[in-house]
Protein 1
Amino acid sequence: MRTYAAVDLGASSGRVMVGRVGPGSLDLTEAHRFPNRPVRMPEGLRWDILALYAGVLDGLRAAGQVDSVGIDSWAVDYGLLDADGALLGNPVHYRDARTEGVAEKVWATVPAAELYAATGLQYAPFNTLYQLTAARSSAQLAYAERLLLLPDLLTYWLTGEAGTELTNASTTQLIDPRTRDWSYDVAQRLGIDLGLFAPLRRPGDPAGLLRPEVLAETGLTGPVPVTTVGSHDTASAVAAVPAVRERFAYICTGTWSLAGLELDAPVLTEPSRLANFTNELGLDDTVRYLRNIMGLWLLQECVREWGNPDLPQLLSAAAEQPPLRSVVDAGDAAFLAPGRMPQRIADACRALGQPVPDSPAGITRCILDSLALAHRKAVADAQSLADHPVDVVHIVGGGTRNALLCQLTADACGLPVVAGPAEAAALGNVLVQARAGGLVGDRAAMRELVARTQPLRRYEPRGDPARWHAAEARLTGR
């Protein structure tokens, strides 16, 4: 039996989980959870990276002695370091407005179709490529000697060694998913200095040892290695999907819903670009072929506006609301920014000529129906575009705790849904560390261990599929 610390950072909270792995056993417990509160500065929306690092140190102290540490987080955002390795300001939040209108400037140099053919990344206004273009004239970028994606930045502070983990790097829109290396042509044409990035690392690679100062701060006894994991939390979550067959789709749920397939090669066709599918890299040379959907962010923002009412009661009331009365496009960038979410959802319903939900329960039901509808379309489109049929949908992440959303997704997709594990990213993080230590085998063995040891719940599709088709037609006009 060995013990691993999984640092798993989400957009609203961070956690340090302790995984214990032995022959045929996998146990995960929470050592420490801490809030992730972005800060609105005069210059824009920023991550409080120092508070996150303090939370990581507190979590490692609470975890106790471990055999290894791994870090995963959300994608695309980064910190800039000067020649002395000091941080040049708090990292910019991907929801900051600085990238508005930047994509059109990029496409004037590298047309959108060429960019997709080279990098396989769907259009999202916050991709690192657009962030760097927006920052081109900033003083911070002018003084920067090193750029580290956020999990790599935290790893650097823990170890003093810099690297760029590949699954997360693939979200920058600067990686060629065929070569699994930098897209040098795209970077050169857009004037992006790839020398800012540290050397690429892959899941399972060593990332250094905890520095003596970190050992003293956490009370751990060295040496404690840090292991590179799938540092994009979705890559770690997909690694822990408890699939027992290859014909599966997955939906990683939380602030975002990421719905798609695991493939052996990218899909770089023009229909794929127009459908806004992305080709991100996963464990063992796989491709995470998926669509980003706004996810439970919609509900999180509404709950915040409503003063944080009791969530189980709200979901119970939503379950009693008329189904599919009003739906919105859960992938619409109009919902990206924080603030006034109930009003924006009401406005979207009104613009579509639908009944406007006028209560928290009604708005919640609209959100969950809309998310299930977006899940349905993403799963169907992925199968068609990749010529890869599936017979089950796995939902992992925080959304597995929302039974209504899971059932609605099964109903919408017309496929059974297997929900769980809720802490998939942390489990994938732990399993990559354990595999690097020789405790578990290949990806299939990792998934079999998850399926055997973690609580899962199965939802069978119910109701008339035609209702979902009709709701979808309201959004698409077809």
Protein 2
Amino acid sequence: MNRNTFVIGFMLFAIFFGAGNLIFPSALGMESGPGLWEALLGFVLTGVGLPLLAIIVSAYYDDGYRTALDRIHPWFSLAFLAIVYLTVGPFFAIPRTGATSFELAVLPFLTGGGAGDAAQAAAAGAAAAGGDAGAPGQGPMLLFSLAYFGVALWLSLNPSKMVERIGAILTPVLLVCILLLIGKGVLWLHGRPPTLTQVEGANGSIAFVNGFMGGYLTMDVLGSVAYAVIVLTAVRSKMGTAQKAPAAALPDVGGGVAGNDLPAGHGGDEASLVMSVAHQSALSRRELVVQASLAGVVAAVSLAVIYVGLGWVSNRLPIDPSVVAGVKASGKDLGSFLLNTAAYGTFGEFGRVLFGVIVTLACLTTAVGLITATSEYFNDVWPRISYRTYAILCTLGSFVVANQGLTAVISKSVPVLLVLYPIVMTLLVLMLLENFVWKPPVLSQRLAVGFVTTVSVLSVAGVEAVNRLPWKEYSLEWAPFAALGIVLGLVGRRERAP
């Protein structure tokens, strides 16, 4: 590994690591009780392993997921990716980063919670979890979001500099802040048993399943579809290699090509030239896969370390179990309550500031990554509009939606995510099969994606028959239909064979 690998890997970590990635493992750590390690293992396998696989597999295709989706149908590819980028872009994910950072990092200070003693620290946690949301009015949110999205736009306007700004500057600051919180928490809580000792389903197998499903439901694989373009572009830039040249771009050997226009070792004829270009393309493809994989590993290891640390600290926080039960019963977010409590318990009043910095940086880097990915995709599809214009429009749209309130954003967008995610998971399985096992026929790919899309839409629509399907309780009711589509495609191909 070299410096570029770590810079790209840290950039990928930062754009993956949003506020939800702080909250989910913290809540899981407390709720798993004695089954902490089994739960964290399951969480890391799906919450880290699946996004890592998604990034690695995308490197096997020139245009990442777009290439794979074009095989299903070009119009389906265009419509599906446009919906994905709009959903993880200005319609949901980007506005959520602004609204979440305000509610977790700024609102507790405006409502006055969290200073003085353990009870007040708990009050700060409750405020950050949404207990006092909206009390200061819309003015503070408007001012904060203006500054927040202004900085996000500035960081996004130049994608080449974004890699350095996030990977080499913002991510180290974010990591230092998080590791300070975790490190001090470990010293503070060393030797303490789990706070919740009587937890339903705390045995190894059930705790593992809970963590496994928790990592799956983070839906970070959906973000991988958007981030793959950024990673591949950054790796190609750092490698200094171009994408595979089309046949039309080869020099016209018959018309006479100067010796310095031919690749080294061309052999002096057209056949040798074509073989040389193909060989260089193969080398570039292998290097692209290797470098993207290494950058993904850097991001994955960083995520796993943070998840384990946050889960362990939350698991042992000195909080009365009745307080934990009260937070959950009130509908407030347990993870943000635990993080605020841990921050105050480790660093006192400074801990609240530290937590605010962590949340703001985590949300900001994610917003920058999503603005960049969304703008690059639409600029590639409709290049008549510049990347800069797309970035400005995406940021303005996110600013408007964010000021509608976090609850409104989530309520309107979650159903769309629940339809998109199974399709992405099915596509990931098909790409894994193609590159590491065998290439499923096009009919299998189309049937699998078609079945899963239909089941996902019906599931979100609340059709009673879908609610009775196997694995519905795990949000995996689509999986048997993906397998069925692959099998039927194989059968159909054999029946048509002469």
